[in-house]
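Thread title: Can someone regenerate the structure for this chain?

I was given the following input by a collaborator and told the matching structure tokens would be attached. They weren't. Posting the sequence so someone can regenerate them.
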Amino acid sequence: MAGIWLDVLDEIARTCRDHGRGDLLQAVRRKRAQLLDPTLRVLVVGEPNQGKSQLVNAIVNAPVCPVGDGRTTVLPTVVQHADVPSVAVVQAPPATPGRSAGAALPGAVERTPVPVDRIADGVAGRLGRRPGGGPAYVEIGLPRALLGAGLVLVDTPGSDEVGAPGAAASVAALARADAVLLVTDSTRELSVAELNVLLHVTRSHPNVAVVQTKIDLVPDWRAVAERNRRHLAEAGVPAKLIPVSAALRLRAAATDDRTLNAESGFPALIARLQRDLAGKSDVLARAAVGLTARTVVEQLAAPLRAELESQRVEERSGPMARLHAAQREVEELRRCSVRWQNTLNDEMADLLSDLEYDLRDRTRQILREVDEAFDSADPLVAWDAFQEWLARSLTEAAEANHEWLVQRCDFVARRVAANFARYGYDVLPPWSLTVPEDLADRLPEMERPTIDRFTASQKVITGMKGSYGGLLMFGLALTLAGMPMINPVSIGAGALFGGKSIRDESRQLLRRRQATVKTAVQRHVDDFFVRVVKDCRDAARQVQRMLRDHFAALTDELQEGIIQSLRTAKQAADSDAAARDQRQREIKLKMTRLAALYEQAQQLTAGRPAAVPLEPRA
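Best answer:
Regenerated them for you:
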């Protein structure tokens, strides 16, 4: 039967070696040697003054451990079989770099014999221990049948520390123990510190019992025992409680009183120790291998789980994250390209419309002033001054319109460049558009319109036409009165009508000249408007093409960089994903093997309650 658990333990050792855990491999090898050792090493732990040393004395029926009179156990005391009584202080050499004191080679320890009558000094650390040496313990040999069967008892110094009952030698003894007895007296219930010690010990030892001592001193020890059992159950500690009285045991041994011996409770404790000794190579070994497998699997699986988690985190922040970021940059650049093109087209369309409206409004204002001026002014008299004013006004309108064109083009360029603000550098094109200095020379010059003049001959003819009618009309009227047709009255009337005709014709000619000039100015302003609008449109189109080419080249440059970054990120992501997938498969395979090893180890304890609830975490 030993071959089954031994094969599992060897498989655990191979697994530790495959994972590169030399520390675990050494621990498994020590556990293997310990389980193959036919002796049963029982560690007695507990807080001070709970009766540990007296318990050991009662088990072997000999006062081997000093008790009473303020004596305390400073060094662990190992009680084992010997043909003749013997006492020695065993001390390891001091720790050296690369090797701990507890890892001394066999034969390298120093043994100092101690007289039997000075055991108390040896246990108290006052005899046989060399200052500056390594951990030490007292080894007592005693000829007893129980010890001769393979039982080894280890009495440890009292301690309140969880999982560390004594000095370094006590910790080493805990690691080599096959069974653990926690000693507590009947004067009180189990303390929190004792329960913590039990929880710690049961994680690495399958065979733990609680020994409740001094039942002979406490009348209601059964109630205390019942409460202690309840505390153990609530804490989830799978340890059996055994009430005993060392005083009754020693007295029964001295008087050979079997009834008193049974009342001491020691027969149950001795029977348990004998059962554990007989089952060490089978039941106890199986449980120990199960616990060893649990410990090893937990320690081997923990870094694997941590590596898997780190890979998940790296997947979110590593090459794959950079790939996703590059893809988002490509998509953002595509949206940016659409945005800046739409912005450019919309702004330039608005610019052309606004420029045309602005120039139209300025020319209309000029035409209104022309109309107001030539409603009263005579073109024959005011033409030269008017022509100079008109040219100056149209030039100012053209310059203002071109200046607005320059400002709006700069505004459009900045609006388009704002779409590239996230890329963190200046993207404005080199700007050179200004108002032309020869703008006045490039404008069409207005020619003097052809206008009618009221000459002297025209005035004479017009006056004669008007006077003839007046003379005839008044002369005929006066003939009815018996006067001659030509008389002073008819002549005066003719002169009056002739002057009126000249004045009326002069006003009509003035209105015709004004209308002619207004029409000529309207045509000239229209020609001016068409030419200036054409120039502004051409300039705006040139600016639009310049901005389009500039930002298109910028987009291509950005796209080339982002695409290259995307390719690099994709290659890195693909390579990282392949390596990560390969590593994840390896980790999952290792964890599957660890789980199988754990299940195989737990099958060794099938049908037997586990020391602590176990779950394969791999």
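The CA atoms of residues 366 and 393 lie 7 Å apart.
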